[in-house]
Amino acid sequence: MRAGLQIISAKSKLSIGRHPGSDIQFDSHTDLDVSTKHAELTFRSGHWYLTDLGSKNGTLVNGHRIERETRLDDTDQITFGANGPQVEFRLVPDSTPDSITQPAIDEPAVPYVTGRGQAVNLKQTRGKGSSTTQRIRIEVARQTKGFRAVLLLLFATLGVTIASFFVIDARRKRSRLEEISVMQIMVDSILHTSEQTIAELRGEMAGLADVLRGSHAEVTSLGSALIAARESGDTQQVALLRQRLDTASAALRNQQNAASVDWNAVWSSSQLAVAMVWVEFGPGEVATGTAFAVNSDGTLLTNRHVVAGASGDRVPTRIAVKFADSYQVFSASVLATSSEVDLAVLRVNITGGVPTTLSLAAEDAAARPGQPAVIIGFPLGTNLPQSSVGSQIVASPSLTAGTISKVLRDVVQLDAYGAQGSSGSPILSREGLVVGVLYGGRDESGGRIVFGVPASYAHELLNSIR
After folding, report:
1. Residues 249-264: tens digit of each pLDDT
2. What is the DSSP letter of 242?
3. 403, β-bridge pairs
4. Is 41 a residue whose pLDDT tops 90?
5. Which residues, 6+ apart, have CB-to-CB distance to 331 below 8 Å?
6. Residue 319 · residue 278 · CB < 8 Å
7. Is the model's pLDDT at 206 over the cut of 60?
């Protein structure tokens, strides 16, 4: 039943409910608080009575739930269910015809039921001629016909608009959920692969497991943040986090690729050319680093700051070199330092020359982002476990795999691992060529982002002393 609907009847018994055959019928789809056969109006002995027919939500008269047949008075408020529709019961002595006669004493007064808020006080008229109430009703209906049509159209348009909004919103939510599901699968796949890679790393891949774990944690964090932002609908945050996640995921995949390379051949052919360096600047002031041979005559490359201090102007009092897998210590001297980049050349005197040398990559074979690379050196110097022969400590270098993530004119950036003592280590391609010389890293990255001088600068410095 719609608000404002008026029902006039002269029957002595009226059925009420959502059943299509009810005399007072409620909408079967919207008035769900009303039972199919809810109640019944009955005229008896000059009065109207209301009876609840065992409805599910009950019937209330003037706010009180009725349990038995209840007599109605003019303007009583009837509610079908505690939260259901409400109507007003009115007694109208005159019926709708133009002229009537005074009803007999047992003739029922006509019950007049209106929706909430639309009650009309009808005045009884007698005699011949048109009923004033009827004329007013007809005139009002005529004048408001157009308005009702417009109002109905507006409500219909509003209904369509609201329905469209909910449909579009539902599609957007469904789309977001699908994107979140795909995103979660992608992140889970990347993380699962990295977990397998970490578990399979061999002992000589020092530091790479830590790099992978750090990248793993970053991808996990960004993935969770992105899913939360997607659920909240924050498109700006989603775009930012998606970009960061793509970058972190690419780095993690590259690190996994680096870990999957068989570096045994590079390790076997290169590690004997790498040496630990001790530099003494004064009594008790000793720094350690790494150097590597590039010529059998004992020419070694390292960093300028290793042999000249952070300021680049210090003069060492002694330099000692111990090659990998050796306990012998040799003295060395500085041949040259670069004023442009962090490079220095050493000369070590060894009878018969050094056991092996490394080849520098040509300029046309420079490092490229995404390529796997490996670092062989002495991170943390002798603080890492070393082997020994009797009482003699044997220099045992570490191999760290990583990925070249950026290449600038004077910088090769790696996602790998570095620590104090690694300075001067060769950065090797999978072919065993030196593509850079490690010199430092970002402190806030925990050693996971390191930098090297490109091999082209090493070529220039060596050519300047030949």
Report:
1. 776 766 666 666 777 8
2. H
3. 372, 415
4. yes
5. 318, 319, 320, 321, 348, 349
6. yes
7. no
Torsional sign, CA 288, 292, 298, 304: negative
Q: What is the pLDDT of residue 185?
A: 62
Q: In this structure, what token pair is assigned to residue 288?
A: 């350690």
Q: In this structure, what token pair is assigned to residue 42? A: 């009955």
pLDDT of residue 123: 33
- What's the residue count for the chain? 466
Residues facing residue 318 across a β-bridge? 280
> What letters, b where the CB count within 10 A reaches 16 and e where it falls short, cover 386-405?
eeeeeeeeebbbbbbbbbbb
Q: Can you tell me which residue has the tokens 């300021």?
A: 311
**pLDDT computed for residue 200 by the predictor:** 54
Kindly give, in sequence order, each residue whose CB lies less than 8 Å from that of residue 340, ignoring residues fewer than 6 positions away.
410, 457
Q: What is the mean pLDDT of the segment spanning 105-122? A: 40
- Helical ranges in 233-350 per DSSP H: 235-260, 264-270, 304-308
CA nearest to 455, candidates 347, 353, 373, 332: 373
- Residue 345's beta-bridge partner residues? 301, 336
The pTM for the full model equals: 0.51
Asked if 123 and 137 touch (Cβ cutoff 8 Å), the reply is no
Q: Hey, how many other C-beta atoms are within 10 angstroms of the C-beta on 21?
A: 9
> How many Cβ atoms sit within 10 Å of the Cβ of residue 166?
10
Candidates 112, 52, 119, 43; CA nearest to 84 is 52
User: What does each C-alpha distance from 168 to 14, 172, 175, 231, 275 come to in angstroms?
Assistant: 45, 6, 10, 16, 67
Angle separating helix axes 235-260 and 208-232, nearest 10 degrees: 160
Q: Which residue spans within 93-157 are E strands per DSSP?
A: 110-115
Whole-number Å distance between alpha carbons of 331 and 277:
10
- Strands of the sheet containing 64-65, edge to edge, are 6-8, 110-115, 86-92, 76-80, 59-61, 64-65
Cβ contact 52:117 at 8 Å: no
Q: What is the DSSP letter of 360?
A: B
DSSP code per residue over 323-355: ETT----EEEEEEEE-SSSS-EEEEE--TT--S
**Residue 326: Cβ-neighbour burial (10 angstroms; 0-12, 13-18, 19+):** middle
